[in-house]
Amino acid sequence: MKKDNSRRSFLKNISLATFSALALSGCDMKAVDEFLQDNFRILTKEEKDVIVKNLEVKYKEKYGKEFHVSDKPAMDGVSFGYALDLSRCVGCRRCVYACVKENNQSRDPQIQWIQVLQMEKEKGIDFAHSTIHYNPETVPEPGHFYVPVQCQQCENPPCVKVCPVKATWKEEDGIVVVDYNWCIGCRYCMAACPYGARHFNWGEPNIPKEELNTEMHYLGNRPRMKGVVEKCTFCIQRTREGKYPACVEICPVGARKFGNLLDPNSEVRYILKNKRVLVLKQELNTQPKFYYFFGV
Amino acid sequence: MKNDFLKKSKIPVFLMVLAVVMNNGCSNSESRSGNNLEELTNDASAEIRNTVQTSEIAVEQPPFTEGIFPCNDCHSEMVPNPVRRELVDMHDDISAIFDHDSENRWCLDCHDMNNRDSLKLASGKLLDFKESYKLCGQCHGEKLRDWKVGVHGKRTGEWNGKKEYLLCVHCHNPHSPRFKPLTPEPPPVRQEDIN
Lengths: 296, 195
Hints:
The structure holds two protein chains of two kinds. By secondary structure, chain A is an alpha+beta fold. Chain A contains nine helices and twelve strands.
């Protein structure tokens, strides 16, 4: 009989060998389960619940704290919208650090989901002449205004379109999320995003244990791994529970507004109806649900 | 079709298992090392909010200087002097910063002469301190309208439920209302400084 030296049988044997090796080594099968886990979107409710329970155990072992990991889906009849008052923002960056803390962003290497751009009033909104590194004694600086930029939660998100493995998608409530377990780290989405809102974990993320936020969502602020992309999720772990995003609550000038675009009585709807509103890079047809407005 | 795609992409996963096993040797020792159940104190969420429920709109307590309210503790034994003047013996700190149409206004345009624990509208109607927004709204009507719908100023609570307002005076000192400059948080690390 001819010996079967095909690629197919080679690959088949490798996977068989791997599994037997795993079984023999008696190591934690949960790691294997996690590795073989399907894309989050096609899992059943039961499968998701098991996964988040396992994550809670895993994080407790790793960080020595109790964690709550949620897999709460979008609420019915909700489409989140955000509005930011450009006439109020003073560029104090309180939002940046509230976000880092709430969403367990790596402190070193530093990842910040919100970037506050300082622009010159004379030039208007002009990204080429803006800076995020301004550092005066006090803000606002005369002659300048500030444009905080984070994920714009586009209705037509280019990042989702380019992902080759469908690890990022738009949820029913409009939040664009990433399944960190499914992300392969190709960073196509970062290239596609016109707002620079996506960030890559070039190194192992570092967060002091005592500063970890233990209220988490699978698609939100749970600890990320090296080699995956992350971004603002409108604080999915808060907003799906009815709370405001952390950046809204911290803003000392009340420039940040958040609510349900489908609710005619929400703050955002009032703003869209009564204020001068703009979106960034409208010409790209990304249709952001992050609106900038002038409150005065 | 979407689901087909996702199912199919599972095939190479089996192959990658080997790579993973070789890389981390399936060791959990690292993750178990720091397992001293630290007490976690989440003081931010434990913060208790003092809400005034009696006013029409739920607002936080007015930000009085400590020990200054009720005003009648001192004022009830004093004979009110309605003459417009600069204060020197008491409240001179307020006189020093007063910058709210100071050419045309002084204390008793907003504070009631006979009941110092109340504010006073232009109509003469007395007003509790926790309804001070009505006083501000006499001139700043447009801002009051925006504030009521949660667009000017800040509301905390739930986007789809109960909300709590900050009063105008939580952010604007009524005697010197211009918003004061803030010290910014540190700028992000420059890309060239990331190791």
